[in-house]
Amino acid sequence: MANPKEGETVQIHSYKHDGKIHRVWQETTVLKGTRNVVIGANERTLVIESDGRTWLTREPSIVYFHAQHWFNIICMLRDDGVYYYCNMSSPFVFDNNTVKYIDYDLDVKVFPDMSYNILDEDEYEDHKAEMRYPDVIDKILKRNVDKLIGWIKQRRGPFAPDFIDVWTSRYEFQKQFQTRK
């Protein structure tokens, strides 16, 4: 399986545990692509929901996926600071020019001051029963919520002070490079 290449455009596909498509982001520019990590960026990209509804993202975002962690992180760059939307999910796979993962409902929203809220716990419990999440998945996800909160508190990974500056600079460079082609 090939790794995504820096500068290429990929799609992001989110699935549910039952294998049904949940959401598709049409275009994300790869800023870093390895076997274990994909960091990308997008802005005003088309998103297609499972029911066919579409919308455009409002602000530039840096996205972070890891092949060994059960979460992914969307860093939304807004006028009043960076907001993070963290999806509890399967580790990603890269297949057919697409980053793919299973969304497990639980989300963590992190504010610019690094305070956070855990979201969608009721939805998680409903889907856990409906789709029969195995106990092992439930335990993995709960451990990874704790790991993610540790990253927030320790300012690790995408929460590190220089992460956004480094990757937004790389994104601006990529945009300039693409317009020269």
TrEMBL record:
Which Enzyme Commission numbers does its entry carry? 3.6.1.15, 3.6.1.6
Q: Which residues bind Mg(2+) 2?
A: D105, D107, D120, E123
The catalysed reaction is: a ribonucleoside 5'-triphosphate + H2O = a ribonucleoside 5'-diphosphate + phosphate + H(+); a ribonucleoside 5'-diphosphate + H2O = a ribonucleoside 5'-phosphate + phosphate + H(+)
Asked whether the UniProt record includes Transferase among its keywords, one would answer: no
Metal-binding among keywords: yes
Q: Which InterPro entries match?
A: DUF402 (IPR007295), FomD-like_sf (IPR035930), Ntdp-like (IPR050212), SA1684 (IPR016882)
Binding residue positions for Mg(2+) 1: N87, D103, D107
Per UniProt, residues of the DUF402 domain are 18-156
This protein's UniProt keywords? Hydrolase, Magnesium, Metal-binding
Which Pfam families does the protein's record reference? DUF402 (PF04167)
**According to its UniProt record, which residues of this chain constitute the active site?**
R23 (proton donor)
What are the protein's GO molecular function terms?
Answer: magnesium ion binding; nucleoside diphosphate phosphatase activity; ribonucleoside triphosphate phosphatase activity
Give the top-level enzyme category.
hydrolase
Q: Which metal ions or organic cofactors does this protein require, according to UniProt?
A: Mg(2+)
What role does it play? Answer: Has nucleoside phosphatase activity towards nucleoside triphosphates and nucleoside diphosphates.
The entry sums up its family as follows: Belongs to the Ntdp family.
Name this polypeptide is given = Nucleoside triphosphate/diphosphate phosphatase
The organism's taxonomy opens as: Bacteria, Bacillati, Bacillota, Bacilli, Bacillales
